[in-house]
Write a structure and sequence with these properties.
Elements: H1 5-18, E1 25-29, H2 34-45, E2 54-57, H3 58-66, E3 69-70, H4 73-87, H5 96-115, H6 120-134, H7 145-170, E4 173-174, H8 176-193, E5 198-202, H9 209-220, E6 224-227, E7 230-231, H10 232-235, H11 244-252, E8 264-265, E9 272-279, H12 282-297, E10 306-310, H13 316-322, E11 330-333, E12 336-337, H14 342-360, E13 367-368, H15 369-376, H16 388-396, E14 401-402, H17 415-421, H18 428-449, H19 452-475, H20 481-494, E15 496-497, E16 507-511, E17 522-526, H21 545-551, H22 556-572, E18 576-582, H23 595-602, E19 608-614, E20 628-629, H24 633-644, H25 650-658, H26 660-668, H27 683-698, H28 708-729, H29 738-763, E21 768-781, E22 790-802, E23 805-812, E24 822-823, H30 836-848, E25 856-862, E26 870-872, E27 874-877, E28 880-882, H31 887-905, E29 911-912
Parallel strand pairs: 1-2, 1-5, 3-4, 5-6, 7-8, 9-18, 9-19, 10-16, 10-17, 11-16, 17-18, 23-25, 24-27
Antiparallel strand pairs: 12-15, 13-14, 20-29, 21-22, 22-23, 25-26, 27-28
Helix pairs in contact: 1-2, 3-8, 4-5, 4-7, 5-8, 6-7, 8-9, 12-13, 14-15, 14-20, 18-19, 19-20, 25-26, 25-30, 27-28, 27-29, 28-29
Protein name: PD-(D/E)XK nuclease family protein
Pfam families: PDDEXK_1
InterPro entries: P-loop_NTPase, PDDEXK-like_dom_sf, PDDEXK_AddAB-type
């Protein structure tokens, strides 16, 4: 038989039994997705035109039997909340968010109790007694308030159950478990009314107690037949999980004491090529899937009978991008959950930005820059909303917390950006209306760019918003923005994205559950890791494991058996099987290979060819190649342009000595660091604040002789000036709290100590006159070893005449020691980065030497080494230190400087990165 072998066999059997009169035939399948494939099998099985039989899912049958409307989990939760409020005293009621945390789990337990037809009162009494025993305090007077509340919860379970059942039945609706229990109650009447019909159950494996009773009743009344699709290899191996349910049913159902068990097949023992492929990271699996599909397409261009089964839904997008362009048709039959939906991820950030802003401000929305930038820089809106001016302003003004209305860019923002940025209130209808407008504007752009995948995701999100609007109209539980987001999360977690494709043509991409009943010749299964396939153990229930075992409720053992069956059914009729798993032992998606792979390798079937491949990214021969840039003619022209135009500054030469590649990037190419918001003041920003404050404080006294009274006046004005510089250089709305307050105090202390030193030196008799602040200096350097005239330039923080000596002073926020500015010899100074500070001071001397007849000194004031005072350049000779910059010294320094500049300009010397 060809692909869909089981369905072909089923169609042939029904055609053989009923010819083409299917008026009395109802076929029940585990899911709805297999219906289309079964109809195709009927086309192949019959040779004339006919009306197709009725094909339904097990849920459809239960709905018919129970005669109630099964609510989805969110509607059920909202209905339960209505019941909860009716039977709970007002002072003890929780809000919806608190309620939903435990109610979801309780509803799952109600569902299990009903599906397995247990007596609710027995289960609840059992649980209550267990929890009373767990609390050793038998005496009521010994109970704490917390224990009493805890025990009250268990006492309330029967009341919750009964009230919910009554409430739902009055509305002719219910949850799945209720529908199953009612279906069992109604089965006898149903059999009497439909005695002429024949029900075929096909492809089932695990059944709950209600399903078992319904099917057995139909079998007993000759109204049903079951085709199991069980392989003898699994059925006869009592340790094999894939046959766990089949063995139990075959042994326990009285029907099989006198009737054959249909069908047992022997497909697993046929020849199979199994390739087990390991690769690091999930994206590696996507890449390999694309390569395997490309390889399979060589012998099967249409990729008929080929399926890619994704154990992890979030692999869908990487796999779609990894498929070769030659795949002309494919069908995606799987749900794609909200956690990986890029549109919902954007709106999750959008909701977080607004709700946090609403909670942060008392009467106004105060936004946090990281949350805002996450939204504004998201690719879904960044281009169409023209968010760059606003992003630039936030970064430039260093706004860590702010109100949108205070942004200059808000006045010229696009309509879409206004929708994104406008602060929320607690008016829920208004928020929903704005979200809908936002969706429509994004949709318009996606249609223009023909981004069909994003449109599908956007449509799924829009459905979620419509559901919320409907629920709000009906239940009125959403009273503020925070509750809106809570409801949104509940619905979004259940929302799935459906893709359109060619169901019967080309490559099939599906999830594990969607593969039930279907058979393929070539199967690629991804994420065959423990915790993914099979899924890990989860205890999302109030009922303990040992109680579940005693009551006959399913545990992780049954869950494992279900996954085992699904896995081996995928392999059952396949000829070429590729099992991919993530071999990475670290990271969020890491894990060990699945036990299924271990089972296939340690206990291989004689007719199976099992091959193991390990794929790794190609590692380079060296960890990193040193980066270098050759001086092309264009680069040489750029260097000449800098040398003759702006010139080389002391910081640029220091840049080159530290790392020539950094010099190339910053000074030659002009690449600057991207503006980012500083939540806490960075060291360079603090330095700018101190420099700016000292400049403005001393500016009125340039050209004047300093006095103690002047310094005392400056001391009084210093705090106000520092606050002003804080706003200019850091943020105009920054709050001085935490680290920012500490930084503000540090700036104040630094300026204070500098002024106190100034005052002390004046008191000791120093004669000081300031002649320049932040003064531009420059000189032209001509030398026969240089290819052309070079300009040297720089900015001196302060130039003064102190006791008839001209001093050039540079402020440093970082720590500078005396040995960094004093040298023992001039030879080799320009080739060692440790002399960077000394080079800077000598350059200042060189640039100013011709502008004065006074002796010259140059020094540094280090705010982190204030106790040392002014650190003056000095040349140590015979235990003596000469702190004056002389013509002879500058001549020797110029020779050293020329060597450095020659190296920078030399076309044969590359710019090469150095390790610091």
């Amino acid at each position: 038989m060809e692909a869909h072998c089981f369905l072909d066999k089923l169609a042939q059997e029904i055609v053989r039994t009923h010819q083409v009169d299917f008026s009395s035939v109802v076929i029940v399948l585990p899911n709805k997705r297999a219906r289309l494939f079964l109809l195709e099998s009927f086309k192949k099985a019959a040779n004339q035109t006919f009306f197709a039989p009725e094909i339904i899912s097990i849920e459809d049958l239960i709905g018919t039997l129970s005669k109630i409307n099964v609510l989805n989990s969110v509607e059920l939760l909202l209905e339960f909340y209505e019941v909860y409020k009716e039977i709970t005293a007002a002072e003890a009621q929780q809000d919806f968010e608190q309620f939903s945390n435990w109610a979801k789990m309780l509803l799952q337990d109600f569902n299990e109790i009903d599906r397995y037809l247990l007596k609710p009162s027995h289960v609840f009494d059992y649980l209550k007694e267990i929890d009373i025993i767990n609390h050793w305090s038998v005496k009521t007077e010994d109970h704490t308030l917390l224990i009493d509340r805890y025990l009250t919860f268990w006492n309330q379970l029967p009341a919750y159950y009964k009230a919910l059942q009554k409430h739902l039945l009055e509305s002719n609706c219910g949850y799945q478990g209720m529908a199953y229990r009612l279906a069992v109650q109604n089965i006898d009447a149903f059999i009497q009314q439909n005695s002429s019909k024949m029900y075929y159950f096909a492809g089932f494996n695990a059944l709950n107690q209600a399903e078992e009773q319904i099917i057995q009743k139909l079998l007993k009344n000759a109204m049903g037949k079951v085709f199991w699709d069980t392989d003898t290899h699994f059925l006869n191996d009592f340790d094999h999980g894939a046959g766990y349910f089949a063995r139990r049913i075959k042994q326990n159902w009285s029907y099989y004491k006198s009737h054959p068990y249909e069908w047992m097949v022997n497909e697993f023992g046929q020849h199979k090529n199994i390739e087990i492929i390991s690769t690091p990271k999930s994206v590696g699996q996507a890449k390999i899937t694309g390569q395997l599909v490309e390889e399979l397409q060589k012998n099967n261009p249409n990729l008929q009978n080929t399926a890619v089964v994704l154990s992890e839904e979030n692999l869908l997008i990487p796999v779609l991008y990894a498929l070769p362009e030659t795949v002309s048709s494919l069908n995606v039959t799987m749900g794609y959950d909200s956690k990986s939906n890029p549109v919902q991820l954007f709106f999750a950030k959008f909701f977080k930005m607004h709700t946090n802003a609403l909670n942060r401000g008392k009467n106004k929305a105060v936004f946090y820059h990281k949350e805002v930038l996450d939204v504004l820089s998201h690719p879904l809106v960044a281009h169409i909303a023209a968010t760059k001016p606003m992003v630039d302003e936030i970064n430039k003004r260093n706004l860590s917390f702010f109100e949108f209305k205070k942004l200059d860019a808000s006045s010229t923002a696009t309509d879409l950006l206004q929708l994104i940025a406008m602060p929320w209130t607690d008016a829920v209808p208004e928020i929903l209306e704005r979200i809908e407008q936002l969706v429509f504007k994004i949709r318009l752009h996606l249609r223009e760019t023909k981004d069909d995948v994003s449109l599908v995701f956007l449509y799924a999100f829009h459905q979620v918003i419509n559901q919320i609007k409907n629920y709000q109209l009906k239940y009125q539980v959403i009273t503020n923005a925070q509750q809106l987001v809570t409801i949104y999360k509940q619905i979004a977690d259940l929302a799935e994205v459906s893709f359109e494709g060619e169901p019967l043509e080309g490559l099939q991409i599906m999830g594990v559950l969607e593969s039930r009943v279907l058979d393929f010749e070539n199967v690629i299964i991804t994420s065959v890791n423990e915790g993914k396939f099979p899924a890990g153990k989860s205890m999302n229930s109030f009922i303990p494991h040992d109680v579940k075992v005693e009551l006959g409720l399913p545990t992780f053992k049954e869950k494992d058996a279900i996954y085992t069956y699904h896995f081996y059914h995928l392999l059952l009729r396949a000829k070429n099987i590729y099992l991919l798993y993530n071999s990475d032992a670290e990271g969020l998606d890491a894990g060990e290979k699945s036990r299924f792979i271990t089972q296939l390798t340690l206990d291989p079937h004689p007719k199976h060819s099992v091959k193991i491949h390990n794929y790794f990214a190609k590692a380079p021969e060296t960890v990193s190649e040193p980066l270098f840039i050759e001086k092309s003619p264009l680069l040489q022209e750029r260097l000449k342009e800098i040398a003759c135009g702006k010139g080389f500054s002391p910081s640029a030469l220091g840049n080159y000595l530290r790392n020539p590649m950094q010099f190339y990037m910053q000074r030659v190419l002009g690449i600057k660091e991207v503006d980012e918001v500083e939540e806490n003041i960075a060291l360079n920003t603090l330095g700018t604040i101190i420099h700016g404050a000292l400049e403005n404080l001393y500016l009125p006294f340039v050209g004047k002789k300093l006095s103690i009274a002047m310094i005392e006046g400056i001391l009084q004005d210093s705090e106000e000036e520092i606050a002003k510089q804080f706003e200019i250089n850091y943020s105009d709305n920054a709050d001085k709290h935490g680290k920012n307050l500490l930084a503000f105090e540090v700036a104040k202390r630094n300026v204070y100590h500098f002024l106190m030193l100034e005052k002390s030196m004046l008191e000791n008799g120093d004669d000081v006159a300031i002649i320049g602040l932040e003064q531009n200096l420059e000189t032209i350097l001509m030398h026969h070893k240089l290819p052309y005239t070079i300009k040297l330039s720089g900015i001196a923080d302060r130039i003064e005449i102190r006791n008839n000596v001209l001093r050039i002073i540079d402020y440093k926020t970082g720590k500078v020691e005396q040995n960094q500015v004093q040298i023992t010899e001039i030879n080799g100074i320009a080739s060692d980065v440790k002399f960077e500070k000394a080079i800077q001071l000598l350059l200042y001397g060189l640039m100013y030497f011709d502008k004065t007849n006074l002796p010259i000194q140059a020094g540094i004031y280090s705010f982190k080494n204030r106790k040392s005072g002014y650190l003056l350049f000095g040349l140590k000779q015979d235990r003596m230190v000469n702190e004056y910059i002389t013509q002879e010294l500058l001549n020797d320094f110029t020779d050293e400087l020329v060597e450095l500049l020659s190296e920078i300009l030399n076309p044969n010397v590359v710019f090469e990165a150095t390790e610091n």
